[in-house]
Specification:
The chain is an alpha/beta fold and 253 residues long. It contains 8 helices and 7 strands. Strands 1-2-3-4-5-6-7 form a 7-stranded parallel beta sheet. The structure holds zinc ion (2 copies).
Length: 253
């Protein structure tokens, strides 16, 4: 399987180590045809990029496009879900400016309301200590993700199930119905082959991302590709692989 685009990379604008330029140069060295800068939304406690940073990132990307014609440089995000009813931490106007939208359910976020903060942050936090909360927390996490998929046009859900329990089948069904891909995160590499099989059987598409937090890790997709292949996926199933990479995500450019 050949993956041509790494859509999941971070820079110093959040808690990554490199600059936008360094991620782009690293992607060119790896032979990628497209690279996305996907910073955390502002609700991520301590690490999210501010809304003003997104303006700067956009400007940097547009300038770099002039300089590096050999690669497509995409303006993306990894937005946070900040309420159980599926609200994101980026305004609609910015979402429209992005080339693609990725969303992750991160437990360490400021909720939209105190109640949401309790459900998303404290629920997942307490679960580490109180196992019997499991079914309720899983139900809330899944509801938050499914609602976000229904509310917005989301291209990719990043690392589903990492740090937070979710109902695989329910998420895969919602994602399949809206054309939202589920990420196989090569950086964390936790996604099971069983998960991939279930999601594929329900019609879900996938994206493979590095979740690079330093330029050296950009385009490091091997572990994700292994999971995809073992899970029975072909290039057809992966939006940034094979021939799919062209024209699927970056239709907005
Ligand atoms: Zn993430
Ligand atoms: Zn990430």
């Amino acid at each position: 399987m050949k993956v041509w685009a790494d859509l999941h990379t971070h820079t110093r604008y959040s808690h990554g180590r490199g600059t936008v330029r360094e991620n782009v140069e690293a992607a060119i060295k790896k032979g990628l045809k497209a690279v996305g800068i996907s910073e955390h939304g502002p609700a991520n406690i301590g690490i999210g990029a501010a809304l003003d940073d997104f303006k700067r990132i956009k400007e940097e990307i547009y300038n770099l496009r002039e300089e590096y014609r050999e690669i497509k440089i995409l303006f993306g995000c990894e937005a946070n879900i900040i309420s159980v009813d599926g609200k994101l931490d980026l305004p609609e106007k910015l979402l429209e400016e992005l080339d693609y939208v990725m969303v992750g359910l991160h437990p360490m976020v400021w909720g939209s309301t105190l109640r949401d903060f309790f459900h998303i942050f404290l629920g997942n936090f307490a679960l580490k200590r109180i196992a019997r909360l499991g079914p309720k927390v899983m139900e809330q996490n899944t509801r938050a993700l499914v609602n976000a998929i229904k509310n917005y046009r989301i291209d990719v859900i990043t690392h589903p199930g990492l740090h937070v329990p979710i109902d695989t089948a329910a998420l895969a069904e919602a994602a399949a119905s809206r054309g939202t891909a589920l990420e196989i995160n090569a950086g964390h590499g936790y996604m099971t082959i069983e998960y991939v099989r279930i999601a594929k059987s329900l019609g879900a598409k996938f994206a493979i991302g590095s979740d690079a937090h330093s330029p050296e890790k950009v385009g490091e997709l091997k572990r994700g590709i292994e999971i995809a292949v073992k899970g029975g996926l072909t290039e057809e199933d992966v939006i940034n692989a094979g021939r799919n990479w062209e024209g699927s995500l970056w239709r907005r450019i």
